[in-house]
Inverse folding.
């Protein structure tokens, strides 16, 4: 299976293992909840899907690389304990709590979330001395005498032996106690993930043209060379930051992430070409409806160049749509806060709007700290919460700076006279201004999308280039979220037209086959 299918299987497992009956008992008893074993090449996202599944299911996650642990840190340290059996005192050996089990309880204490995933990576690389302990843990969910809390699911991962010399084959006894999922690299699955996580357009354009370079492992007499999905994603993050700071992305930089000099050099050359196309065809101008004759010359360009421009347009739009999605999430949270503020001011429970707003900011900051510790938040959610915190600080300062109703003494002390009606009116006006700005950005994004369609229609008509652009939009998380909320006439017109053409071709083919 590919990584997308494995993630769905993991989510289904979480739902099944955490399902309870009417008495609150787990439908599948914890001792019958087989651990999952994810076996696949390094760097394809096995750890990432564990985090994503936990976040989407609203549970916690504790992650360990088991090869970093000795038997002592895994089962705990021995100590002498006094016991009495049959009236006779004895000194016996007991063990402190395992560091791994303790970290699960720490996560529960910090977040209050009592269900989660314990992810153990490189499970098939444990030492000979630790192997029996791991077998006991997979079967009974215990390290020594300490039990993994009910509600926590064990997910393990490992690499096939061709990728790691330290791999030990599991025997039948072990395999009979786990659910084994064999995962293969798959660019199409990565592309879906990339759309939601804003992988840089140059990376996706390059991999669309050079699919064979998405995942590569080769060996010669001198060394082993490899390129993984993890390498592409990490390089993508660096490229976005380097571009903001105007730092060049060179072959040397690419080679630090793509551990194959041939592919690293090829990508670095393509990245330079990608930016050249961006400047030649002036993507920003195209989206603003300013199409030059030079840009229209792309109709005569090689297919690689056409595809690069299409993906440049798509990436630029996706970044706009992603920003709008974050703004919508922030506005939704702020609207809820203002609704609660109004209720508090009416009831007289909170005489100071600025004081209530400050309390909400503190509450959200604490939520952010707590849920970050448990790794419960997606990157999008974290960005939205940080944006709301900044917005609340702005509103608080605005309320405190309104001084027309302050008596001189209170103004000097930095205090504000209580005026609930005016406070709420000021807060509402501030929110309305933000919303008006957001609506203007939505109209601008819609116009840019329409301009992109107009350019592609002039340059390529309704050919394969238009089909590729429509496919990119339809596969993009942020573009589809935008189009669902704000239907774009050009998108639906061209999409419908191409679907009709496709259906017409299918009918012609059916007739020819019958004849």
């Amino acid at each position: 299976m590919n990584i997308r299918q494995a993630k769905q299987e993991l989510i289904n497992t979480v739902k099944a293992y955490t399902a309870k009956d009417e008495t609150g008992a787990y439908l599948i008893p914890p001792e019958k909840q087989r651990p999952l074993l994810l076996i696949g090449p390094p760097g394809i996202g096995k750890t990432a899907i564990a985090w994503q599944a936990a976040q989407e299911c609203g549970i916690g996650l504790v992650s360990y690389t088991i090869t970093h642990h000795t038997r002592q840190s895994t089962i705990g340290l021995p100590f002498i304990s006094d016991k009495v059996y049959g009236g006779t005192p004895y000194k016996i050996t007991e063990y402190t709590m395992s560091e791994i089990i303790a970290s699960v309880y720490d996560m529960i204490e910090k977040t209050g979330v009592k269900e989660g995933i314990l992810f153990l990576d490189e499970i098939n690389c444990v030492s000979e001395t630790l192997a029996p302990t791991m077998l006991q843990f997979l079967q009974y969910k215990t390290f020594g005498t300490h039990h993994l809390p009910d509600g926590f699911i064990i997910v393990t991962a490992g690499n096939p032996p061709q990728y790691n010399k330290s791999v030990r084959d599991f025997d039948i006894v072990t395999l009979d106690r786990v659910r084994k999922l064999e995962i293969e690299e798959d660019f199409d699955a990565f592309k879906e993930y990339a759309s939601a996580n804003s992988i840089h357009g140059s990376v996706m354009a390059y991999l669309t043209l050079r699919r064979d370079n998405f995942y590569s492992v080769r060996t010669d007499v001198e060394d082993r060379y490899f390129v993984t999905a993890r390498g592409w994603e990490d390089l993508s993050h660096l490229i976005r930051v380097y571009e903001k700071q105007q730092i060049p992305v060179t072959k040397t930089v690419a080679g630090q992430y793509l551990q194959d000099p041939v592919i690293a050099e090829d990508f670095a050359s393509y990245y330079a070409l990608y930016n050249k196309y961006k400047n030649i065809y002036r993507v920003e101008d195209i989206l603003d409806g300013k199409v030059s004759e030079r840009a229209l010359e792309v109709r005569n360009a090689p297919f690689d160049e056409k595809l690069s421009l299409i993906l440049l347009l798509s990436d630029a739009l996706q970044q706009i749509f992603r920003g709008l999605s974050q703004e919508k999430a922030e506005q939704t949270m702020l609207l809820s806060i203002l609704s609660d503020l109004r209720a508090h001011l009416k009831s007289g429970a909170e005489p100071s709007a600025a004081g209530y707003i400050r309390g909400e900011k503190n509450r959200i900051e604490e939520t952010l700290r707590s849920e970050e510790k448990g790794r419960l938040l997606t990157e999008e959610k974290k960005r939205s919460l940080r944006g709301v915190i900044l917005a609340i600080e702005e509103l608080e300062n605005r309320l405190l700076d309104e001084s027309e109703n302050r008596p001189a003494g209170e103004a000097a002390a930095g205090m504000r006279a209580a005026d609930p009606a005016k406070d709420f009116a000021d807060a509402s006006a501030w929110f309305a201004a933000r919303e008006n700005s957001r609506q203007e950005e939505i109209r601008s994004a819609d116009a840019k999308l329409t301009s992109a369609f107009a350019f592609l229609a002039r340059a390529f008509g309704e050919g394969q280039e238009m089909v590729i652009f429509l496919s990119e939009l339809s596969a993009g998380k942020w573009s589809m979220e935008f189009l669902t909320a704000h239907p774009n006439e050009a998108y639906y017109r061209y999409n419908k037209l191409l679907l009709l053409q496709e259906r017409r071709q299918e009918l012609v083919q059916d007739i020819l086959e019958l004849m």
The domain at 3-71+106-184 is CATH 3.40.50.300 (Rossmann fold). The first strand starts at residue 36 and ends at 39. The chain is about 60% helix and 10% strand.
